[in-house]
Amino acid sequence: MMEFSIKSRVYLEDSDAQGIVYYVNYLKFMERARTDFLRDLGFDFQSLQSQKGHFVVHSLDVRYLKPAKVDDEILITATITKTARTYVVFLQEIRLIKPPGEEPNDPNADVLCRSQVKVACVSSGSGKPMVIPPQIADAFQTKTVSIQGDR
Amino acid sequence: MMEFSIKSRVYLEDSDAQGIVYYVNYLKFMERARTDFLRDLGFDFQSLQSQKGHFVVHSLDVRYLKPAKVDDEILITATITKTARTYVVFLQEIRLIKPPGEEPNDPNADVLCRSQVKVACVSSGSGKPMVIPPQIADAFQTKTVSIQGDR
Amino acid sequence: MMEFSIKSRVYLEDSDAQGIVYYVNYLKFMERARTDFLRDLGFDFQSLQSQKGHFVVHSLDVRYLKPAKVDDEILITATITKTARTYVVFLQEIRLIKPPGEEPNDPNADVLCRSQVKVACVSSGSGKPMVIPPQIADAFQTKTVSIQGDR
Amino acid sequence: MMEFSIKSRVYLEDSDAQGIVYYVNYLKFMERARTDFLRDLGFDFQSLQSQKGHFVVHSLDVRYLKPAKVDDEILITATITKTARTYVVFLQEIRLIKPPGEEPNDPNADVLCRSQVKVACVSSGSGKPMVIPPQIADAFQTKTVSIQGDR
Q1: Chain B residues contacting D, CB < 8 Å?
Q2: For testing the chain C interface, which of D32, D62, D116 should be mutated: the one with the most C CBs within 10 Å?
Q3: Contact indicator for B116, B44 with CB cutoff of 8 Å
Q4: CA D60 → CA A21, A25, C116, C123, distances in Å?
Q5: How many CA within 13 A on the CB side of residue D38?
Q6: Do D60 and C56 touch (CB under 8 A)?
Q7: Is the dihedral of CA A113, A132, A5, A30 positive or negative?
Q8: Across residues D58-75, what is the average pLDDT?
């Protein structure tokens, strides 16, 4: 399976006075999935730091479709759609997990938001673009899915 | 002047372990500018609620150019580039304010990030698209700048 | 076991420019544990709302002992030390989970912070104190530990 | 005047699904006031870093009295009640600013929450307690108010 995913619960901290998840916070959920994906491949925040680099978000776009509410259980996905020398592109979705007993999920019907996130590797000192360390790039490569219409 | 702006300081709460502003938090700064823009036009969160509607972010894209750090003073701009029946599009920038004594700002050189945010008016009950109340739409209209290449 | 606990990972979103977890965010972790504790007893945010009440934090104190860092795995505990008519008191700790292979945890050596949180039940309309609904109070009662020196 | 204060507006980002400011976020407002107080005395986050130290919150307690809501304007105060060799204690309040035209504020009637925060100076490397640099300690000293019942 090329799509990585984690589950999470929505807590009061994630919500706002409109009674739904504050739209900015979906991006935090998405980063948790990217981080766990990287960890699943054998790398973490500190292992990259030891190579004098770190990953930063270069650009992103998000399309909000339906809101999540407190108590909801959600699935956060991350799929690598492009691995380049100094950056990697993720396609991510947040989907509502229906409580047991309700009809089976129609994946498209339950997508709450969808995002494309371009993550760049930069030098910790200068902040300049840096080539992704080979063992990380190789791991990304084995997980990269070609998607039609990728930017 | 069609561009609305506010100033803010960067605090520890805004930063992350990379020593810079956590990229998600720029979106909070941008919302503060949109909210104050709306307030400047005579409307606030609660005045819209009394009309059984509220504004939600429909979609956004962000391009991160340079990071801000704790103690930095920043300018957050908001310009309306399109007003439609049920939504409005903002172009927003966050710019570093140079300390007094440093050479005058080159606006382009100091842009930290740039975003396009589409904000939709929805019915508070159903969450369905709702026509922007006329007095708010009129106020937006008087502040709308036509920008070449607007989506 | 009277102590309820959940595990969590520390992400970049939780950290600050000092390279550690931003001290305010430990309180979010603690609320997640209280919420999951309540859910484990059969109640959630929305079930309480249907009774026209909700829980709010009345007061809290926190003692910070050692910092957590990005990538750390932590255990967040919640123990009920008092159940009264309109409020409940939790004692909570956040402990560092040592990676496998390191010597066994000395519970006291690994406590990162410790908090006492008094949570009150209030009427959703007026915000006035409200008697905790009996089935919730009974569930709290079965989980209440008498602790010497409790306030 | 020994009490330092800043004003702020409450934004959607500060609120939660209960329609009020998420209780954890009051602590962020309080830190902004402490930071601006320090800046007003001539010191900032980076000036302390250059002395190989930084300030961390050692412990705090908060008493929540009344909630703030989106659009509210609030006053955040900070008063130094004790300056010791390696730490400083602040008494802080958040007060609702009544809209013009309403009756004059009764300071006690408008207190939304009150907190005591003990801030310690620690060595950036080891995290061990560090003596507050003399010029900062002196500045704190001139602003320290003796309060009966201070811990």
Answers
A1: 9, 11-13, 28, 31-32, 35-36, 39, 44-46, 69-71
A2: D62
A3: no
A4: 28, 26, 11, 28
A5: 23
A6: no
A7: negative
A8: 96
Task: Name the residue of chain C whose CA is nearest to B21's CA.
Answer: C17
Nearest-Cα distance to chain A for C19, in Å, is 11
SS3 of C35, please? helix
HSE-CB of B23 using CA atoms within 13 angstroms: 27
Query: d(Cα C32, Cα C27) in Å, to the nearest integer?
Result: 9
Write the ipTM.
0.91
Cβ-based neighbours of A52, under 8 Å, separated by 6 or more: A123, A124, A125, A130
**H/E run at residue A80:** strand A73-83
Known catalytic residues of D are 16
Does C104 score more than 70 pLDDT? no
* Residues of chain B with C-beta less than 8 angstroms from the C-beta of D9: 32, 35-36
* Catalytic choice (C14, C16, C36, C44): C16
Closest CA to A23 of D30, B117, D79, D42: B117
Residues from chain D contacting residue C67 (CB–CB below 8 Å) = 56, 127
> How many whole angstroms separate alpha carbon D141 and alpha carbon D116?
18
Q: Are residues C11 and A44, on separate chains, in Cβ contact within 8 Å? A: no
pLDDT tens, residue by residue, C23-34: 999 999 999 999
By C-alpha distance, which of A24, A116, A42, A41 is closest to A79? A116
The pTM (predicted TM-score) of the whole model is 0.94
Q: How far apart are CA C27 and CA D25, in angstroms?
A: 10
Query: HSE on the CB side for C24, CA within 13 Å?
Result: 18
